[in-house]
Design a protein that fits this description.
Tail fiber receptor-binding protein, 5 helices, 52 strands
Length: 655
Amino acid sequence: MTAFWGNLGGTLKNLFSIGKTDKISIENASGEVKVNLGSVERLRIESNGTLNVANTADYETLVTADDDIPNKKYVDDFTSYADSPLVATGGVIEVGTNAGTFKHSSLVALLRTTDSVTGAMVIVTKDAEDNIAITAADTTYFVVLNYNGGTPNITLSTTAPYSAVGDYRSIPLGRVRKDGSNNVHYVNGGFHFQDGVKKLHNRLISLRANELTEGHALAYSGTNNFTMEEGAIYAGVNRLTQIAYDSAVTTFIPLYGDGGVGWTEGTPRNTIDFEHYDDGSGVLGEIGVAKYGNHWVYQHMDDQDVYVVYGLDSYSLAGAGSESAPPVPLHLSDFGCLIGRITAPQAGGSFTDVQMVTDTVFTGTGVSDHGNLSGLGDDDHTGYVLADGSRDITVANEDNETFTINQNDTTNNPTAFEISNTGTGDCVVVNTDKLTIDPNGNTHIKTADGPYFRVENDTAEDADAGREGHLEFKGTQSGSEVTTLAKITGQHDGAADDQKGALVFKVNDGADDDAPTERLKIESDGTLNVAATTDYETLVTHDDDIPNRKFVMDNSGGSVTWETKDDNFSAVSGYGYRVDTDTNTKIITATLPGSPSVNDKISFLDLKQNYGTYALTLGRNSLKIMGLAEDFTAGIDNFNFTIIYTGATDGWVFI
C-alpha cells in the first residue's frame, strides 16, 4: 500500500492511500499525471498546468493554464447564475456629430454568451462609436449592446432586449429618438448596474430620505404627555432600530421659526404646548378658543433625541387635518425622521387625532342608496334633516357662528325655508361668490354674462293673467306691521295657447295691506296703460310710432290734425307735425305763423328721434319765442313739445 501525506492546517495528515484493493493507480504519460479509479480516469494534470476532472469519460476543465484565479470555474458559475449582465464602465449615450445620429463612449460590460437567462457571462469591451444613424423619425428605439459572438456591436430595436421576446445576449444602454427635423433626444437608462447597491442606497436617500418603516406609534399619556413605541427607521438601505420613548420621562425639544431663515429651540419640556403655534413672526401665536393646533414629532435616528415642531396656524379641525409638514432645519432632515403629527385642541387634555407617516388611507365603498345609511332616525346631530322633516337644521361654522335653516312647518310637510346667521359674516354663498346674502339682508348677484333672477311658473294653462310670477316688496312700519308696498307681476296676455306676456305693476295706495292696486300695465302688443283708480287710461297703443304722444296730445288742447314733414315747411296753428329730419338727412326749418291769435297751439314730434343729428329750427317769423327775438333750435333727440301763442310780449311759449 502506498500512502500520500500532506499538510492540512499545519498538521501532517494521510490524504489517501493506494493499494491493490482500492484499485487506484497513478501513471505518468507524455508529461501528464492521471489518477484512475478502477479502470476509469478521473483526474488529469496536463503538462501546461491545466487541471481537469471527469465524472464519466468526459472532462470538465476546472483551471486552465492561463488562469490566475483559484476556483475560477466555481466563481464563473456563480456569476453566470446569480448576477445580471451589466455595463461596468462607459457606454454613455450622447447626440452624434452628424444630424439625426447618436454616439456612445467606450465601454466595459459583462454579457451572456448564450441566449439563456443562465448563460455563461464574459467580460467584453467596445470602443467609442459616433454617427450611429437613427432609423425613423418619431420612433423610440432601445440602444442595444449585443455579444455578437465575442465582437460586441450596437443595434437599435423597438423591442426591449434581454427578455423572453428579445435575446439574453443583448442588453440596453438607453433609448434614443429623433423628430422630423433630425433633433435627437436620448436617455441613459440601460443596464448600468455596476456598484448597484450603492446606487440603490443613493436613490433611496434622494427619494425617500430617512423613513419610518414600522412601530413608533404615538399616543397621549399622563397629563399632556405622549409616548412612542419601539420602531425602525430606514436611512437608504440601512435599517436603524429605535427604542421606546415617554415624554414624561425624557424631555423633548420644541422648535419653531425665528421670524427669518433660522430656527428657535425652546426650553426642553415634557408636555405638548397646546396653546401656541408658529405664526412666522419669531414669537409664538396663540391658538384661538375651540381651535386646534398641530405638533410635528421628529426623532434623530442615532442619538434618538426627540423634537416637536409647531404647526403653522390656529385651525378648525378640518384645516388642521389638511396641513402639510412645515419646513424643518437641516439637522432634522439630514439626521432625523418624521414620526407623525399630533392634532390637539387649544384646551389640551387629549389628542384629537394622531397621524403617523406610516398610516395608509383606504377608500371605502360608497353607499349607493341613501336609505342604506345608518343612524338616519337618530336625533343626535343638528346638521342634517331628519327623515320625517320634523327638525330644523342648525350648523356652527369654524368661528362658532350659527347658521339655521328653519323648515317653517308644523305638519312635517316642509314647503318653505328660512336661513339665518348669528355671526357677522355673509350668511349664504352659492357657487363661490356668485350669490351672497350679507348680514344686512342685501342680496348680491355676480355673473360674467350679466346677473338675473328667474321666476318660473310650471302650471300648464292658457287663461288670461295665468302662468303668473311675482316679485314683492315688503316693509315694516314703526308699529311693527309688515305690509306689501309694491308688486311686479309677469303673466300671460290673453287666453290663447301662445307665448304672449304682460307686465303689471302694483303699488299700495295706503290701505291695501298685502294686495296692492294695479297702476301700470304693459301688454304684449306694446300698449302702455296707466290707472288712476281701477280704470286704465291708454298712454301709448301698439300702433303709435310717436314717443310721448299721449302727453303731446294732452297739451295740444283738443283735436289736432297731424302731418308728417321731411323738409322745410310753414306751420299752421292747430296742427301737429311729425318732423322727420332723418330721411333727407337735413336740418328742417318750421316757419311759425305771422299773425297768430292768442292761445293758438302747434305741436312738434321728433318722428325718427334724430334731432340730435339734424335739428328742427322754429323760424319766429318776426315774432318772439319765449320772449326772445330769435329763432329756436330743437337739437336733442326725442324732444317732443307743444307751443302756445301768448301775445306780443313773450310770443310763442312752450307748454
